[in-house]
Fold this sequence. Notes:
Blueprint: E1 7-8, E2 13-14, E3 19-20, E4 25-26, E5 31-32, E6 37-38, E7 43-44, E8 48-50, E9 55-56, E10 61-62, E11 78-80, E12 85-86, E13 91-92, E14 97-98, E15 103-104, E16 109-110, E17 119-121, E18 126-127
Parallel strand pairs: 1-4, 2-5, 3-6, 4-7, 5-8, 6-9, 8-11, 9-12, 10-13, 11-14, 12-15, 13-16, 15-17
Antiparallel strand pairs: 17-18
Amino acid sequence: MIWEPVNIYHSAKLGDDVSIGAFTEIGHNVVIGDRTRIGAHCFLPEGVTVEEDVFVGPHVVMTNDKYPPSGKDKWQKILVKKGASIGAGVVILPGVTVGEGALIAAGSVVTKDVPAGEKWCGVPAKKMEE
């Protein structure tokens, strides 16, 4: 289900049973896997891949340009792997991979790769102590 208004570029690829919240922008060539939920007011620019069964909370911002404004040749990709959960208001910086089944707490700023199955929080985000 897609809640209007949204801006989804024609080159984006959406899987089956995807939900996208209102006021979200899905950029050129973004890939979103099956059964993934993207909350309201999110920004996913070109170079983002979100695999299947992922939850992206509201107000999540992913960015592809580490030192804007730079040329497209300097943009970096973001990969969110299967089953990851990203809390509300998270910012994910360019070049980051969020591992399979990882959890990112609300309000975190993710500056480096998050390994599979780990829980991270904070600014900058770090592994949560169990």
